[in-house]
Amino acid sequence: MRGALAALALPLLAALGAEAEPIAPSELSTLPTADIVILGEVHDNPWHHENQTAAVAELQPAALVFEMLTPEYAERVTPDLMTDAEALRATLDWDESGWPDFAMYAPIFAAAPEARVFGAAVPREELRGVVMGEGELPEDAARWGLDAALPDEQQAEREAMQAEAHCDALPETMLPGMVLAQRVRDAALAREALRALDETVGPVAVITGNGHARTDWGMPAKLARAAPEVSVLSVGQLEAAPEDSAPYDLWLVTPEAERPDPCDAFRG
């Protein structure tokens, strides 16, 4: 199911509660059309970035939104930098950013050299304040539902996921703040994607982690709340097949990246 028919059918299937089908990497060149296409990733997986590059090359979006860039850094990106990996890397101070090797991300920029670049990263100081309960929520918190508590079951599930992601090394008292910070980041991505859509008319491609790409509580849910008239397609990339389905419109499975045990940083 592809092309114009797919663009109409996918939102309808989602509204009816139908489970999305997995796709092969080759199908990234024939994705259904949408105003905003969210391309999820595991940040250090090179196959995921290759797949994002292929999708962006086919989509030729008018705008690229990166989770990895603040709006200030995104404004530094000029058209001549899009295909100059080394100059772009230096301009973005990428080596000091904490994100994986820029060699994996550079081809995404080059795949859509005419696209405007937007950044949706929330400054670390702001996130730290949210986590510690000392910072204020964004002024438009109500637009994204940030001023309301999550259902108890979802809150508990998300706190458990945060604990597991941090190797059960965090104090339990930090977990609610970690969940709220994730919600703030979801809202920032949604806000910037809508700004990009408004300023370029779209389509907009978003490069972000799989957690933010989730349709049930991530960025797509924020977009559905704030701008239900905007069509959104979310593609998740997994390193193992899920036991049941996956919380994306479409999803695919790739090899697992080679990496050291992430829990080593919490030991010793």
Structure characterization notes:
This protein has 268 residues and is α/β, with parallel strands linked by helices. It has helices at 3-15, 46-59, 71-74, 85-91, 102-111, 124-131, 141-144, 152-165, 175-200, 210-213, 219-226; strands at residues 36-39, 63-66, 116-119, 204-207, 232-238, 250-253. Strands 3-2-4-1-5-6 form a 6-stranded parallel sheet, with helices on both faces. Helix 8 crosses helix 9 (175-200) and helix 9 (175-200) crosses helix 11. The termini are far apart.
Topology overview:
Elements: H1 3-15, E1 36-39, H2 46-59, E2 63-66, H3 71-74, H4 85-91, H5 102-111, E3 116-119, H6 124-131, H7 141-144, H8 152-165, H9 175-200, E4 204-207, H10 210-213, H11 219-226, E5 232-238, E6 250-253
Parallel strand pairs: 1-4, 1-5, 2-3, 2-4, 5-6
Helix pairs in contact: 2-5, 6-9, 8-9, 9-11
Order of helices and strands: HEHEHHHEHHHHEHHEE
Q: Which structural class best describes the helix and strand composition?
A: alpha/beta
- Using only CA atoms, what is the Rg? 18 Å
Low-pLDDT runs: 1-18
Gross morphology: globular
Task: Tell me the total number of β-strands.
Answer: 6
Helix content bin:
40-55%
Strand content: 5-15%
Describe the largest sheet: 6 strands, parallel
